[in-house]
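Input sequence (415 aa), recorded before submission:
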Amino acid sequence: MPLLPNVTPAMLLPEFWLSRLADPDRATFDAAALADLNATVSALIGIPGVLGLPDALDAADVLALLPAVGQRPRYDADGAAFGQADWEAIRANLALEALPARIVPRYGLAVRRTALRTYPSSRIALKEPGDLPFDRFSETTVDAGWPVAVLHTSADGAWAYALTPHYWGWLRLADVGLAERAVVRDFVQAEPFAVAVGPWADVALAGGQPPVVLEMGSRLPLAGANIVLVPTRLADGSLAIARGYLRAGDADWRIGYAPASPRAILEAAFRVLGEPYAWGGMRLGRPGRDCSGFVQDVWGTAGVRLPRNAGQQEMIGQTVVAFEPFEAPEVRAARLIAQGAPGDLLLMDGHVMLYLGEVDGRPYAIHDLWQYRHPDGSLTLAGAVVVSDLPLERSTERHTLLERLTRVQRMQPPG
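Predicted structure, token format:
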């Protein structure tokens, strides 16, 4: 992880930023406001809640959700362009002709962290040859204990087209345990519960089974002291619930959601500092986070169910600053410093960051960044969660982080 311009080693600790605040433990909203905030998400992004689907859907409505096949050039891991036969194989695996006129959703829980894909295929698809960290078929990931609604199965029987929290896509059917909707609802709404607040939180299983690893912000029902309930999949594909075990005093877990305070949010963010960037939550099969996944997971520790993409995240909460396209950097910095607060989302086209505060009139953020563009146009590869400044210096092409900012969004119910 590089030390970027104007960043000192002390700035890589949350205490540096928290010590500059008058009341870092003051929560910005309570449980009732959290419920109001989360209730707005589905309506704003136009994606229903997993458990809120009707008893049956028309095939035409499901077909309208599926992305077109073969519309853009793509390259495999060896740099070879996808040909007509490659796209036809993907199209055939969609099994669209097998869709019944009325589709009855099947419900389940993810039993492990799994990739959600554009198509029912594990093939790497690159925008440019050799661009290996960016598999364009990788949409996001689904974590153990998350609900899914399965609407269709691929021709090879290996993939399920499903609605997951705030996202549609294809995931491996072997990673889902199927059950009645009421069983799934009871699991995801169970209280009390434990929340993963470390970047990756382990749950031990009995009988020599490998541990289940949950990402930050995910939750599991509590069944006793240091005991949680873990979804598993039986040989017939149905759901079973096992007992999992947490280490006593494990700092990667807490009971209930963290408070929505600057301390809780910044401490969660800095736990991920230095983690390699992973487009769509996966990088060559290794789980991770990208910019919006990082923000989603950090705020998930406080119970905020942010949507997956930065373009959707900017619709959630309250807009505290909206920047004009050609505002000078010094004007932008002054407005951000005067009105922004640590933990606010800093948004621009294709990227999102968490605001940290200012030092000597220069704003700073923590974010999952692929590359840092200097005012003179040169680049520093970051490829990780980093602390960076938002350069005050002007650039000829308005490409710096500060110049690209469009708005500052605060996680509070609108109104």
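Checked by second reader. The chain has three domains: 9-29+260-410, 47-185, 190-199+213-255.
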